[in-house]
Write a structure and sequence with these properties.
It contains 18 helices and 15 strands. Helix 16 links the parallel strand 14 and strand 15. The longest helix has 30 residues. The chain is globular, with a radius of gyration of 23 Å. The relative contact order is 0.12. Bound molecules: iron/sulfur cluster and FE4-S3 cluster. The site of FE4-S3 cluster has 16 residues, from helix 16.
Length: about 550
C-alpha cells in the first residue's frame, strides 16, 4: 500500500484509496496532506497543553484553517503548494514552541522539516492508519473530516471579516484530542457531537458574514444560456473572490458565469448590479470535464471541486486561488489587504471565443431562511390545508457514481404534494426537472451552497416554533441527504447536534465508519442508507 485515504464517498471499493485516489490525488499529494494534518495536530497540542491564548495568535489560527481546507477532497492537487504549507506550519510550530515547554507534547511537535523524501517518509508513519484500533481511527477521522468542513466555512467567513475565537479554540481542542491515546471511544463520540455544535456555530457565522455583506438571498431566476461575449467561469464557494472578479471585469466586455457551487451567488442582492454577471454555465463539479471544453474562456477555482483536466488546452485556462491548487496552473494570491489581481484571466478571456451554448432557459433559487420565513404564512397555510404533505431535505453533494441517479428518480417520483428543500451541489440532480409549484411555492426550494445548509436548519426550527412542536422530529420533514466530501460531514454532524433523527445518507454510507461506529450512529440517531426509490418513498410517506 503506497497511500491511504478514505475521506470521501467515492473512495476506492468503499473502503479506501491505496494506490491512487479515485479523485486523481497521487501518492505524493496524499502523503503530504497527511503530514500537513499531522503538523496541525502538533500545533494544536502545543496550544492546548501550553495554554496559549488563542486570541494572541490570530495569524496561526487562520493558517490552521487554510491547512485543513487544502486537504479537502478536490481542493488542492499541487504537491509543491502543500509542501510549502507544511514548511510554513513547522515554522509556526517552532515559534509557538519557544513560548511553551515542548517536552509535554507528542512526537508531532519534534520532527524536523527535512527534504521531500524525509517528509514523505515521516508522512508514511503518521497517516490515517497510524491509529491501529479501527473504532478509534474511525472516530478520530470523523472528527477530523468535520473539522475540515468547519475550517472551509470559517475561512469563507474570515475572508469577509468575521471570526469567532471560540471556533479556533475548539479546532485546537479537537485536533489535539485526536492525538490523545487516553481518550475512550465514548469520549470521542462526545467530541464528535461537540464538533457538530461548533459546526452550527461556524455556519451561523458564515451566514451572518454573507448576508451582512451581500444581503439576504432572494428569489431569483438564473439564466442558464449564454451571450456572445468572451467570458470567465468562476467555480467553488468563495464570494469575496467573485466580488473582486466582478469589480475587475466591469466594463471590460468580459462576461462572468458561475459553475457548480457558485450558482447561488446569483441570489444575493449585491451581485445583481453587475451587468456582466450573466448566469450559470453547466452543472455540478463532476461534469466540468466536458463543460470546460465548450466554455472556451478562463476558469477560476476559488475552492473545491477540481477534477484533473484531461486536455492541455483546458488546463491552460485554469487558474486557482485560496486553498485550491493544481500543478502547472497559475495560483492567484491575495496581497496583505486581501486584494487579488485577476488581470491575467481578463486578458486571456479577451483572446478567446464566447462560450458555446449547452442549455437555454433559467432556473429559480434563492430560498435561504430569510426568504422562506418571509413566505412563512403561505407555507404554513399550505401545510395546514394539506396542499403540502411533506418537505424533503435533499441537501448535500453530487458526484460521479451512477448510483446517484437515485436522487433524480427520487425527486421525480415524489408525490406532487411534497416540496424539496435543497442546498449544495446535490441540487443539480433535480433542479432542472421542472417539478412545478404548489400554489406558487416551487417544489424545489434551493437555499444555496452547501455552506447554506444552515438555512435549512433555521427554516426547520422556525416551522417547529410556528407549529408549536416540542421536537424537531415531529415536523413533516424527512432528510434524504447525498454526501461526497468533508463539508457534508460537518453538515451531518451539525444536524445530529440539532437533534435531527432518522437521516438517510447516500448513495453509500461513509467508508470511514467502522462497523461499531456505524452502529452507534444507527442506534442513537437512526441514521440509515438508501434503498430503492420505490421502497424509500413508501417508507418516507408512511
Ligand atoms: Fe480517494 Fe476520496 Fe481520498 Fe481522493 S479524497 S484519495 S477519492 S478517498
Ligand atoms: Fe459540492 Fe464539491 Fe460537496 Fe459544496 S462542490 S457541495 S461536492
Amino acid at each position: 500500500m503506497s497511500m491511504f485515504c478514505y475521506q470521501c464517498q467515492e473512495t476506492a471499493k468503499g473502503t479506501g484509496c491505496e494506490i491512487k485516489g479515485v479523485c486523481g490525488k497521487n501518492e505524493e499529494v496524499a502523503k503530504l496532506q497527511d503530514l500537513l494534518i499531522y503538523v496541525t495536530k502538533g500545533i494544536s497540542e502545543l496550544v492546548v497543553k501550553g495554554k496559549i491564548d488563542v486570541s494572541g495568535i490570530m495569524e496561526t489560527n487562520r493558517e490552521i484553517l487554510t491547512s485543513l481546507f487544502m486537504t479537502i477532497t478536490n481542493a488542492n492537487f499541487d504537491e509543491n503548494a502543500i509542501e510549502k504549507q507544511i514548511i510554513k506550519m513547522i515554522h509556526v510550530r517552532d515559534d509557538l514552541g519557544k513560548k511553551v515547554s515542548l517536552d509535554v507534547c507528542h512526537d508531532s511537535v519534534s520532527f524536523e522539516v527535512g527534504s521531500r523524501v524525509q517528509m514523505l517518509e515521516k508522512a508514511s508513519q503518521v497517516g490515517v492508519l497510524a491509529t491501529e484500533n479501527e473504532d478509534v481511527r474511525s472516530l478520530r477521522e470523523l472528527i477530523i473530516y468535520g473539522l475540515k468542513g468547519m475550517a472551509a466555512y470559517a475561512e469563507h467567513a474570515y475572508n469577509i471579516g468575521k471570526e469567532d475565537i471560540s471556533i479556533y479554540s475548539f479546532v485546537y481542542e479537537a485536533l489535539s484530542a485526536t492525538l490523545d491515546d487516553t481518550l475512550s471511544a465514548n469520549d470521542l463520540v462526545a467530541l464528535t457531537l461537540k464538533t457538530g455544535e461548533y459546526g452550527v456555530k461556524t455556519m451561523a457565522l458564515l451566514d451572518e458574514a454573507n448576508t451582512s455583506k451581500y444581503g439576504n438571498p432572494e428569489i431569483t431566476s438564473v439564466n442558464i444560456g449564454v451571450r456572445n461575449n468572451p467570458a470567465i467561469l468562476i467555480s467553488g464557494h468563495d464570494l469575496t473572490d467573485l466580488e473582486q472578479l466582478l469589480e475587475q471585469t466591469k466594463g471590460t466586455g468580459v462576461d462572468v458565469y458561475t459553475h457548480g457551487e457558485m450558482l447561488p451567488a446569483h441570489y444575493y442582492p449585491a451581485f445583481k448590479k453587475y451587468e456582466n454577471f450573466v448566469g450559470n454555465y453547466g452543472n455540478a463539479w463532476w461534469k466540468q470535464v466536458g463543460e470546460f471544453e465548450t466554455f472556451h474562456g478562463p476558469i477560476l477555482f476559488t475552492t473545491n471541486c477540481i477534477v484533473p483536466p484531461k486536455s492541455e488546452e483546458v488546463q491552460k485556462r485554469i487558474f486557482t486561488t485560496g486553498a485550491s491548487g493544481f500543478p502547472g496552473c497559475p495560483h492567484i494570491i491575495a496581497d496583505e489587504k486581501g486584494k487579488k489581481d485577476f488581470s491575467e484571466l481578463i486578458a486571456m478571456a479577451k483572446t478567446l471565443s464566447a462560450p458555446e451554448e449547452i442549455e437555454t432557459g433559467s432556473i429559480v433559487g434563492g430560498f435561504a431562511h430569510n426568504q422562506v420565513i418571509a413566505l412563512a404564512d403561505k407555507v404554513v397555510e399550505a401545510v395546514k390545508t394539506g396542499a403540502i404533505k411533506k418537505f424533503f431535505v435533499m441537501a448535500g453533494c453530487d458526484g460521479r457514481m451512477k448510483s446517484r441517479e437515485y436522487y433524480t428518480e427520487f425527486a421525480k417520483s415524489l408525490p406532487g404534494d411534497t416540496v424539496i428543500l435543497t442546498a449544495g451541489c446535490a441540487k443539480f440532480r433535480y433542479n432542472k426537472l421542472g417539478l412545478g409549484d404548489i400554489g406558487g411555492i416551487p417544489r424545489v426550494l434551493d437555499a444555496g451552497q452547501c455552506n447554506d445548509s444552515y438555512s435549512l436548519a433555521v427554516i426547520a426550527l422556525k416551522l417547529k416554533e410556528v407549529f408549536e412542536l416540542e421536537d424537531i422530529n415531529d415536523l413533516p420533514i424527512e432528510f434524504n441527504i447525498a454526501w461526497y466530501e468533508q463539508k457534508a460531514v460537518i453538515v451531518l454532524l451539525a444536524l445530529l447536534y440539532l437533534g435531527v433523527k432518522n437521516i438517510h445518507l447516500g448513495p453509500t454510507l461513509p467508508g470511514f465508519l467502522s462497523p461499531n461506529v456505524a452502529k452507534v450512529l444507527i442506534d442513537t440517531f437512526g441514521i440509515a442508507g438508501i434503498g430503492t426509490v420505490e421502497d424509500d418513498i413508501k417508507l418516507f410517506m408512511a
